[in-house]
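Lab notebook, bench 4. The sequencing result for the construct came back, and we need a structural model before the next group meeting so we can plan mutations. Quick request posted to the team channel:

Model the 3D structure of this chain.
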Amino acid sequence: MTATRTPPPRTQARTAPQARGPRPAVAVIPVRKLFSAAQTNYFLLLGVTLFLVIFGLVMVLSSSTIESFNDDEGFFGRFVRQGLFAVVGIPLMLLASRMPPTFWKRWAWPALLFGGALQMLVFVPGIGLGYGGNNNWIRVGSFTAQPSEFVKIALIVWVAWVLTTKQDLLADWKHVALPIAPVGGLAIMLVLVGNDLGTASVMLLIVLGCMYFAGVRLKFLLTGVAAIALVAFIFVVSSSSRMERINAWRSGCGPEDYSGYCWQPEHANWALAAGGLFGKGLGNSVAKWNWLPEASSDYIFAIIGEELGLIGAVVVLALFVVLTIAFVRIIRTTRDTFARITTAGVMVWVVGQAFVNIAVVLGVLPVLGVPLPLISAGGSALIATLLGIGVVLSFARTSSAEPEEEVVQTPADRSRLLAEQRVRSRA
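Done. Here's the predicted structure in token form:
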């Protein structure tokens, strides 16, 4: 009887560490996961994105007051509208970041078809809206949107899904061209018919970037670039306005002739030159007083250079470089081919369009009419860009998830589990 009563104290002594054992694992594992490489990529991308959005709101407030007042919206009308778009776009980005990768694969085709249907509405009388020579907007009542911005993200997800399903067949040019060439070409052609050459160029860049990061052979890409260049040449030559833009860019606009298509590039150069090293100060721009068209949208980088100087302009460039680093880190850490191609497509879209916009303002490229992502005024562009970044954040979040076994497979836990197994076997 005495021998049979001794096990309870021994069992109680062994169960005491069991109550204390899980506490260090619960406290240590989340901290380890918080500082993991994948979580660092997630917060790096999220932090830079939010900073660019806030910085963009400040610059829209500074650059749009005169334009907004001239449009009978008050001094702060355009800023308030941009702020509302940010309030809508940021929660959408965070919601998209919670979706699993299978969600985006499942909705690749429906998203592209829905985006194409929206883009076709720009040709419907009474709904389609033209601006600046481009017929690329829709208006329903007081609501205005640019469908091509949402076609970009739909095209990225769809191309990534197609290339993922054909990963083992990319050595054959037929599987590379079909169905990307006809379907993607149709989506881009719908934008070109609306005379929006800048957006169509960015979409072409997106498709080529996705194919490059998917591992498509370089000779296939070069052949596609040659064909695209031929079509672009015919498209430019067929329009007198596009030819005037190209000729103005080639000849270089000087002080003796800055009318017509030289007006905007020249005043952008003067605004950048007037900023100097430290700038005139936030809100002290002269170019925004109706001297520089599209000061709060396509040419907002010129206002940044004038008010914040060379230092402010370099900081903007550095932020987009950091954004590129965040994208590249996510591409390198993910094991999912679909996630890698989609992340690359969003990177080419956001960063590539940013440097195209800055190159246009600096006079390196002819006027294309593309906004500066996350900074320029424009609700459709801001919401679509935040949604695209949210898709990438979903990949960064899911790649940081660790298997359940790693939470309990610490040395202390293994010894505890072995001790419990011995007790059960003796019982």
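The chain has one domain: 55-399.
Will bring this to the meeting.
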